[in-house]
User: Which sequence fits this backbone?
């Protein structure tokens, strides 16, 4: 089984009439577009679903720093290095907003990090691929952050207040990230034949994993129906994936690059691009921990956490000391 399956206590979605009174007024508030705040009553399954999604999102942000961190020391110019550093630092900030949002649901950051480090919690599949050349910094910003924006703009309107508010700031920063990625790609395609080839190779390697970021196809997405009823999800995985393809293909054409999909073509009738079948066996393999970099990513995270333990302990000891001091008269 590739999903944790939060127990909602029901085998299928229930209509308003079938819900017990408390849940019914909760659902009515959601249907009326009223935000749910931490102190409001909420069904346990709603709380667990949010902890699952927000914490996975937070983990993705901090694990997402690692593939790009690989290129800080090898960025081609001082300016590119400063931009990349700023972007990676933003990702840490996104992780912090998101862990804080998850903590409002009654879980501690330590518990969430334990779940990540023990392999129980997921993070986005995309960060289990290696960054082989500088062009990968371009492809990640353009395709990965580009996909993240498409997924996260609707989350600014999701039903849980702290998550929706965190997303507003995250999305503003993501748009700078996507632009810096596209700018790297533009510089490469305007360069030498070798640089153009490097850009094409990065697109070839990141295209399909970027499409997988949106999750399984709607027919296999076990969490979607309930999350849509609770307005945690406002669009389906396939709808957002289609939006990504429609938006990105013209950008690839502008770069003079070829999207690595022989089945890609504009469908006049649908008003969308048709595209080829995703290799779902690869997606499931990565989710099971067998992607090219899963083990390395987790090892690096755990080591960083252990290396920082003395510092966190010192902060707590200092805070305890201050708290124990009699207040100055
Ligand atoms: N990777 O029923 P489904 C970033 C799991 S950070 C791994 O459709 P749901 C960035 C899913 O969790 C980007 N697992 O689930 C950072 C579920 O398993 P569990 C991160 C995936 O939740 C740094 C199972 O498959 N963005 O952009 O309704 C640098 C069934 O799926 C993936 C977010 O986290 C995947 N790709 O929908 C640069 C956004 N896809 O949990 C960039 C917030 C699915 O039951 N999250 N799974 O064990 C979401 O919008 C939703 O959680 C998803 C999945 C659309 C991802």
Assistant:
């Amino acid at each position: 089984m590739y999903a944790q399956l939060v127990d909602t206590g029901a085998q299928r979605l229930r209509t308003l009439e079938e819900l017990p009174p408390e849940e019914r007024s909760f659902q009515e508030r959601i249907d009326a577009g009223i935000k749910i705040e931490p102190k409001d009553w909420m069904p346990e399954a709603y709380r667990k679903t949010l902890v699952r999604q927000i914490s996975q999102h937070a983990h993705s942000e901090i694990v997402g720093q690692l593939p790009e961190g690989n290129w800080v020391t090898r960025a081609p110019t001082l300016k590119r290095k400063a931009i990349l550093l700023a972007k990676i630092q933003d990702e840490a900030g996104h992780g912090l907003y998101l862990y804080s949002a998850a903590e409002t649901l009654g879980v501690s950051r330590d518990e969430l990090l334990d779940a990540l480090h023990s392999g129980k919690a997921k993070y986005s599949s995309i960060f289990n691929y290696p960054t082989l050349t500088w062009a990968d910094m371009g492809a990640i910003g353009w395709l990965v952050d580009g996909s993240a924006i498409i997924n996260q703009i609707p989350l600014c309107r999701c039903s849980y207040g702290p998550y929706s508010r965190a997303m507003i700031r995250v999305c503003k920063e993501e748009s700078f990230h996507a632009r810096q990625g596209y700018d790297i790609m533009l510089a490469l395609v305007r360069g030498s034949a070798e640089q153009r080839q490097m850009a094409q190779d990065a697109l070839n390697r990141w295209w399909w994993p970027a499409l997988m970021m949106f999750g399984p196809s709607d027919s296999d997405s076990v969490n979607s129906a309930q999350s849509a009823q609770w307005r945690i999800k406002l669009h389906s995985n396939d709808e957002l994936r289609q939006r990504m393809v429609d938006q990105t293909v013209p950008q690839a054409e502008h770069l003079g690059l070829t999207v690595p999909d022989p089945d890609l073509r504009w469908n006049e009738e649908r008003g969308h691009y048709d595209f080829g079948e995703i290799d779902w066996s690869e997606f499931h393999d990565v989710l099971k921990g067998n992607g090219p970099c899963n083990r390395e990513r987790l090892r690096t995270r755990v080591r960083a956490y252990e290396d920082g333990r003395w510092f966190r302990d010192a902060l707590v000891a200092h805070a305890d000391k201050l708290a124990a001091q009699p207040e100055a008269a």
